[in-house]
Every structure is written in C-alpha cells, then in structure tokens.
Amino acid sequence: MTARIGVVTFPGSLDDRDTQRAIRLAGAEPVALWHKDKDLKQVDAVVLPGGFSYGDYLRAGAISRFSPVMESVIEQAKSGMPVLGICNGFQILTEAHLLPGAMLGNNHLHFICRDQKLRVENADTAWTVDYDAGQEIHIPLKNMDGRYVADEHTLDELEAEGRVVFRYRDFNPNGSLRDIAGISNAAGNVVGLMPHPEHAVEPLVGSGRTDGLPFFTSILKKLVNA
C-alpha cells in the first residue's frame, strides 16, 4: 500500500491542487484535508501548501494557525509525523511554533515572483533525503511576506544544529537573515521553506525543471523505509 500524504486546504490556499499533483507524480497518494476538520484521515505525512490563507489578515498564517486541523497537525508533528510547509505553509508553521522565527514583509516591500537558485544545506531531513548536501537547485518563488527573521541566538542555534535546510544563492529575494530559505525542527520531521517545489516537478509546465520533485520522492522513501 502506498504512502498517504495529506494536503490541507485553508480559505485562500492557492497551491493545494498543485501539491496534490506533485505527490501523485512522486508515487504517493494525495489526501485532501479541510481546515475545519480535525480528522487527518490516517495520513502518513502532511503538507501545508502555499497561498494567502484567510487573506493574510492580521499576519500571514496567524489565523490559519488556529484552524481545527492544526490542532491535529501540531499534535502529530510533535509525535514525529513529517510535515512540510511551503510559503504560506512555512508562515503557518512559525505561527504555530513548530518552527522558530517569524516571516515579515519583503525588505523591498513588493511581491516577488521568480525562479530562485537555492543550495541544499541539509539532505538528512524527512523531506530532503533525495538531495545531496551542497547541491544547487532552481525552485520558483512567489511571496510578499517571505523575509525570515529570528534573534541571533536562534539563528546561531539553527546553524550549529544543521537546521538551515536551504539557503538562497546569488540573490536574496526578500531580505531573509543569513540568506535562509528553509529550516527544520530539531527532529528533522518538520520543514518549512518559502520557494514552491510543487511548481518544479514536470519539464513541460511550471519552471520547466524537475528540481522540486525530490521533496516528494524523499518523503515517500522515508515513509517506505520507516
């Protein structure tokens, strides 16, 4: 039986269907999860997709963090379930305190949409085992509130523990401290990043690259070998 990976839809989610397609292309079964339902339908992992949940009112991810489904996601993540937050999903993970730090508005105060070069810093998380440490990849980026910030102690801790998973290369698109594009929790089962790997899984659509597909094959491999 194949792995079942849940994709949560919040009001204002944009990339839930794209994420489901990426999961299917990787060989797993995507399972649609609704923000009002606490039931995770016995999935093996969860993805919080990109978008503008609740219109980014108050602060990006601040309202979604209190959705009923997040009670279950938080509980299961703390028990070891793999969770990936993409863009708005990353913002929700910081608001839910599953990942440290916060996301602020881009330093140039504009929405940005571009193909972004990243360097893989940690290839040992549940979502990155199909990459190599030091590998450079191109993943589409689109955000308004993508500037990752944290206090110096937290940043030093992330660096020392190898929890910076991705770093921007050549160009920092939003002013994120230390060029951080993605991080993990201490256990490595929870990962958040601003770029959109689900838009780089097929050569004929999206970015025209498949650099994002290993996110989804990584978790499948991790679950199958668990």
UniProtKB/TrEMBL annotation:
One of its GO terms (molecular function) is glutaminase activity. The keyword Nucleotide-binding applies. GO terms for biological process: 'de novo' IMP biosynthetic process. Gene3D superfamilies: 3.40.50.880. One of its GO terms (cellular component) is cytoplasm. Its EC number is 6.3.5.3, 3.5.1.2. Its main location: cytoplasm. It is found in: Cytoplasm. InterPro entries: Class_I_gatase-like, PRibForGlyAmidine_synth_PurQ. Pathway: Purine metabolism; IMP biosynthesis via de novo pathway; 5-amino-1-(5-phospho-D-ribosyl)imidazole from N(2)-formyl-N(1)-(5-phospho-D-ribosyl)glycinamide: step 1/2. Part of the phosphoribosylformylglycinamidine synthase complex involved in the purines biosynthetic pathway. Catalyzes the ATP-dependent conversion of formylglycinamide ribonucleotide (FGAR) and glutamine to yield formylglycinamidine ribonucleotide (FGAM) and glutamate. The FGAM synthase complex is composed of three subunits. PurQ produces an ammonia molecule by converting glutamine to glutamate. PurL transfers the ammonia molecule to FGAR to form FGAM in an ATP-dependent manner. This is Phosphoribosylformylglycinamidine synthase subunit PurQ. It comes from Streptomyces lacrimifluminis. The gene is purQ.
